[in-house]
Amino acid sequence: MSNIPTPHNGARGDEIAKTVLMPGDPLRAKFIAETYLENTVCFNTVRNMLGYTGTYNGKKVSVMGGGMGMPSIGIYSYELFHFYEVDSIIRIGSAGGYADDVKVHDLVMGIGASTNSNFAHQYHLPGTFAPTADFGLLRKAVEIAENKGISVKVGNILSSDTFYEDESNAKDLWKKMNVLAVEMEAAALYMNAARAGKKALCMVTISDHLFTGESLSAEERQVGFRNMMEVALELA
Ligand SMILES: O=P(O)(O)O[C@H]1O[C@H](CO)[C@@H](O)[C@H]1O
Ligand SMILES: O=c1cc[nH]c(=O)[nH]1
């Protein structure tokens, strides 16, 4: 493990569990660690991208922020998969709803992640890559949510390079393709997992709706996603 610590992650050796939960917001990682984990150790403070390892129901699990956007999660997930021997990363994010039947607080799982990013360009593929979730993680996550009585929608999500779009009809076009919601990281995470031969899943809670204008406050986004956190922890 000569590549660690990395320029972005101060963890050493076996400080990180095989499964990492990854919210975009490092303060959401801190909240999860403080609320749900026992025997917790903070393994990363570089750039305040907080990372913790602890136990949940006796099982070792890590939780670390991944930042906003594909370059950011691209770095952290690459290092975890390749340098820290992490097997699975479960992104737990917020997203903006597109579909009519998606409402704020809903839990959505991305079976696929469409994207307007050029992340796949690096692979020099002779076509278009379809970034997808690991089926085993997805199936298990749906099962856990259903057993808890939490309704879950599974479908295609959009990973966008832009939060603030210049005037365009992009959202109408993605909605026409039955894309459920927009976030900013899943496609890069799924591609890094595919290339590394590892597993990834992105689940999101809808924080606002791009067509109806419904939205949650920043505080609700930070701590209000308990259903998703509990599904992800059980999955881990
Ligand atoms: O809540 P997180 O996980 O950061 O996810 C969403 O929120 C951020 C934008 O506000 C982007 O990172 C987007 O993907
Ligand atoms: O990326 C995101 C996340 C939440 N809401 C949005 O509109 N976009």
From TrEMBL:
Q: Could you name the Gene Ontology cellular component terms for this entry?
A: cytosol
The positions annotated for binding phosphate are: G24, R28, R47, R91, I92, G93, S94
Q: Which GO terms describe its biological process?
A: purine nucleoside metabolic process; uridine catabolic process
Glycosyltransferase as a keyword of this entry, yes or no, is yes
> What keywords is this UniProt entry annotated with?
Glycosyltransferase, Transferase
One Pfam family this sequence matches: PNP_UDP_1
Q: Where does a purine D-ribonucleoside bind?
A: H8, E183, M184, E185, S207, D208
Query: According to its UniProt record, which reaction does this protein catalyse?
Result: a purine 2'-deoxy-D-ribonucleoside + phosphate = a purine nucleobase + 2-deoxy-alpha-D-ribose 1-phosphate; uridine + phosphate = alpha-D-ribose 1-phosphate + uracil; a purine D-ribonucleoside + phosphate = a purine nucleobase + alpha-D-ribose 1-phosphate
The record's CDD domains line, in alphabetical order, gives: PNP_EcPNPI-like
The segment(s) forming the Nucleoside phosphorylase domain are 19-222
- Hey, where's the site called Important for catalytic activity on this chain? R221
So what EC number does this one have? 2.4.2.1
Q: State the active site.
A: D208 (proton donor)
Specify the superkingdom.
Bacteria
Q: Which GO terms describe its molecular function?
A: purine-nucleoside phosphorylase activity; uridine phosphorylase activity
Q: Which PANTHER family match?
A: FI09636P-RELATED, URIDINE PHOSPHORYLASE
Q: What does this protein do?
A: Catalyzes the reversible phosphorolytic breakdown of the N-glycosidic bond in the beta-(deoxy)ribonucleoside molecules, with the formation of the corresponding free purine bases and pentose-1-phosphate.
Query: How would you summarize the oligomeric state and partners of this protein?
Result: Homohexamer; trimer of homodimers.
* HAMAP family with a match to the protein in the record: Pur_nucleosid_phosp
Protein name (record) = Purine nucleoside phosphorylase DeoD-type
